Amino acid sequence: MPVKGTGTRLDPVCNMDVTGRDVEYKVNYRGREYYFCSYDCMKKFEENPEKYLSFHSQESAV
């Protein structure tokens, strides 16, 4: 997950900046923590994490 600034992460579902220390919604997937801006984003990720992870890996390869 890209680090945007000190303690800030990118929500892989909506691309919103999320501050790690204040985050309420997070998921550990394949040994890595993912942070979310909302419950809805977290649930979307949990339903199909590869959809969001493959989108970001394709985006960074461009």
From TrEMBL:
It comes from the Archaea. InterPro entries: Ferritin-like_SF (IPR009078), RNR-like (IPR012348), TRASH_dom (IPR011017), YHS_dom (IPR007029). Residues 11-49 form the TRASH domain. One of its GO terms (molecular function) is oxidoreductase activity. SUPFAM superfamilies: Ferritin-like (SSF47240). This is Small protein often clustered with efflux pumps.
